[in-house]
Amino acid sequence: MANPSLLILAGDGIGPEVMNEVKRIIDWFGAKRDLAFDVSEDLVGGAAYDKHGVPLHDDTMAKAQSVDAVLLGAVGGPAYDNLDFSVKPERGLLRLRKEMDLFANLRPAQCFDALADFSSLKKDIVAGLDIMIVRELTSGVYFGEPRGIHMEDNMRVGINTQRYTEAEIERGARAAFELAMKRNKKLCSMEKANVMESGILWRDVVTEVHRDYPEVALSHMYADNGAMQLVRAPKQFDVIYTDNLFGDILSDCAAMLTGSLGMLPSASLGLPMANGRPKAMYEPVHGSAPDIAGQGKANPIACILSFAMALRYSFDQGAEADRLEAAIETVLADGARTADLMGPEGGVPLSTTQMGDAILTA
Ligand code: ATP
Ligand code: MG
């Protein structure tokens, strides 16, 4: 059988720096675990603009459509701030998401024990936390029509429309249930069915999809209560499925349970391809971090954890993903810290490459 294929788009700023560590880990899997990937690399964002005058070349788009998974670093930077909107680096990312139709955005909030003190919450609330928020990414109030600012009775009125079809709710729900099956078979769906029609439909459709996943324990929660519970007792959750707007807010909340932006991976999944794997793009939550780019001090862990998600959700290598996460846990427990993970007490931080070395040898 052919090796699974992976397209690496390192992008701009710290993107190439953190991706370099991932490439070394991919090589390690090939050499030490007999798990080889067909890796190709291409440009996205400002790097693509510099070469092609567009933030994503058509050939790159075609490649992204044909591989098993895309691994992306970060895009953008001050050098591109004054570009025309249509060629801004971020447009490259949006084009990938749109044309690959990546409708399920997976944002884990995972707290490594060694960093529990570093989190913004009390240690016993977050130690050992491992939850996953699935946010619907292509519909809802961000896209619904009508929208705009209109004049009514000599007054300006701002309008957005929350609109969901049952097909949109269903495909995201299937992705969430599939995920729950690969994790702990527990799913909480969040909406506001008490005040929103789309919430009533959401609850109905999720309940219908549940019939195909009877092994999963399903619960429903109003999203405002969900926000409270997420901060009060986040470990009660495993997978959370919610809409585009609530997901935006809830996933940022959940992210801050765990500490640094340099630790947070994400995945965006689409429909299954002919080989049964979902279309997929994996990327760290952080941006190109122009303030520290080129200095070799970025934390590569978010990008490495994004690759771990690819192992688990695109390549059916859950045990290898566990192994990689355990290596990260070990080096953190041994005290390895990049600058972003250091408290006021200070110390000498590891460089990006030194953190990569530590994980490779753990
Ligand atoms: P974007 O608009 O692309 O999200 P941003 O400026 O809002 O960009 P980031 O680029 O993620 O967000 O940077 C936010 C802050 O977090 C910066 O101070 C940056 O240095 C820091 N940061 C982000 N990623 C990392 C990382 N991997 N390691 C260390 N620090 C990081
Ligand atoms: Mg930002």
TrEMBL record:
Q: Which InterPro entries match?
A: IsoCit/isopropylmalate_DH_CS, IsoPropMal-DH-like_dom, Isopropylmalate_DH
Keyword tags: Amino-acid biosynthesis, Branched-chain amino acid biosynthesis, Cytoplasm, Leucine biosynthesis, Magnesium, Manganese, Metal-binding, NAD, Oxidoreductase
Subcellular location(s) of the protein: Cytoplasm
- Enzyme class comes to oxidoreductase
Q: Which residues bind substrate?
A: 97, 107, 135, 224
Q: Where is this site: Important for catalysis?
A: 142, 192
This protein's pathway reads: Amino-acid biosynthesis; L-leucine biosynthesis; L-leucine from 3-methyl-2-oxobutanoate: step 3/4
Catalytic reaction equation(s)? (2R,3S)-3-isopropylmalate + NAD(+) = 4-methyl-2-oxopentanoate + CO2 + NADH
EC number(s) given by UniProt: 1.1.1.85
Q: Which residues form the Isopropylmalate dehydrogenase-like domain?
A: 5-359
User: Do you know which Pfam families this protein is assigned to?
Assistant: Iso_dh
**Where does this protein chiefly localize?**
cytoplasm
**Family statement drawn from the similarity comment of this UniProt entry:** Belongs to the isocitrate and isopropylmalate dehydrogenases family. LeuB type 1 subfamily.
Function noted in UniProt = Catalyzes the oxidation of 3-carboxy-2-hydroxy-4-methylpentanoate (3-isopropylmalate) to 3-carboxy-4-methyl-2-oxopentanoate. The product decarboxylates to 4-methyl-2 oxopentanoate.
Quaternary assembly: Homodimer.
Q: What is this protein called?
A: 3-isopropylmalate dehydrogenase
Source organism per entry reads Yoonia vestfoldensis SKA53
